[in-house]
Amino acid sequence: MPREQLTGTSLAGYALRDLIGEGGTSAVYRADHPQHGLVAVKVLREKLRDDKTAVARFVREAQYGARVTHPNVVRTIEIGEARPGMHYLAIEWATGELLERYAKRNAPIPIDEVVDIVRQIAGAVQAAHAAGIIHRDLKPENVMYDPAARRVKLLDFGIAADRDMAAEDRLTRAGFFVGTLMYVAPEALSGEMVTPAADQYSLATIAYFLLTGCHPFTAKGPREMFTQLLTQPPIPLNKARPGLLFPPAVESVVMQGLAKQPGARFPDVLSFANALQTAANTSAAGSKSGIFSRVKGVFGRKSP
Predict the structure, then answer these.
(1) What digits encode the pLDDT tens for the residues 253-289?
(2) Using one digit for the tens of pLDDT, what is the confidence trace for 195-205?
(3) Among 160, 180, 152, which Cα is nearest to 273's?
(4) Whether 221 and 283 share a structural domain
(5) Closest among 38, 3, 47, 49 to 22, alpha carbons compared
(6) Which of 2, 12, 75, 228 could cross-link 92 (Cys pair, CB 3.0–4.6 Å)?
(7) Are 88 and 119 in a shared domain?
(8) Are 223 and 268 in a shared domain?
(9) What is the pLDDT of residue 80?
């Protein structure tokens, strides 16, 4: 069955110009609106409009996004139903590109830039936590990044969860984890409700990836990855990539964020981001005085 194509049509006053992204549950369009200007509009797929669970999940994503107000979270403009079953979500247009694409081209990324990115993501996530929401799917593909402005925008609350949600109201069955395996916290693999510490683990994985271009585990498939997450420690930051060395303080912060036990991580995501910045600043000062002269290509390298 061919997928519905809405480019060139109007939906609830939004002129849909280009299809910019597609997923299993929705399509995203660049659109113009006489009042809101350039926006992104996410539309639930036609085949899911009679699926009560899919509709509930789509609406819940929109509602969660609307609850989180922060400069580094895409602003929710409107949630609606253009016609029966045709649910849509209009959000601000975020400039730049997906952080995943940027990192694949440019990693290892200079540590000062990584710190800047991590701090912005942490601020966005902390705002979500303050609103009672756990993101559960932090990964570079869910972050828009404008390298010229060094500005981050967090996207996609599609599988976020309310910390106060009753078990019977959850849309994920117990025993089934949600998230992306390369970035998911070990405790999430049981399918039980996680704490904000799970988002910190995912953010530490993002930091690891940006700094090295590698992931903390080397599994070749989902089954092996599942096993490594549960039974093996992550690869130390200084062993991620031959010839790439970081000061011990930087490695220590990243690895603490990747601790298997949630209680061994930092108290919250902002504490993790602040600790990373402090470690980077202290180490950079030390490198200028020759203390870390062996660390090459990490500090002072210009962004591409």
Answers:
(1) 999 999 999 999 999 999 999 999 999 998 777 555 4
(2) 999 999 999 99
(3) 152
(4) yes
(5) 3
(6) 75
(7) no
(8) yes
(9) 94
How large is the angle between the packed helices 111-130 and 196-212, nearest 10 degrees? 160
Tokens of 36: 């809101």
Answer with the residue of higher pLDDT: 179 or 247.
247
Write out the residue range of the structural domain in which residue 45 sits: 10-92
Residue 176 shares a structural domain with residue 244: yes
51 is catalytic: no
Residues 135 and 64 in one domain: no
Q: Which residues make beta-bridge pairs with 152?
A: 145
d(CA 181, CA 278): 29
Whether 304 is covered by a domain: the verdict is no
Residue 291 is predicted with a pLDDT of: 39
pLDDT confidence of residue 288? 54
Give dist(CA 96, CA 197) in Å, integer: 28
pLDDT of residue 161: 86
* Torsion of the alpha carbons at 228, 229, 231 and 234, rounded to the nearest 10: 80
- Three-state secondary-structure class, residue 11: strand
> If 0-12 CB within 10 Å is exposed, 13-18 middle and 19+ buried, where does residue 223 land?
exposed
SS3 67: helix
Please pick, among 18, 50, 112, 137, the residue that the annotation labels catalytic: 137
| 156 lies in the same domain as 228 | yes
Domain boundary among 38, 71, 92: 92
Residue 295 has pLDDT above 60, yes or no: no
Q: Evaluate if residue 33 carries a pLDDT over 70.
A: yes
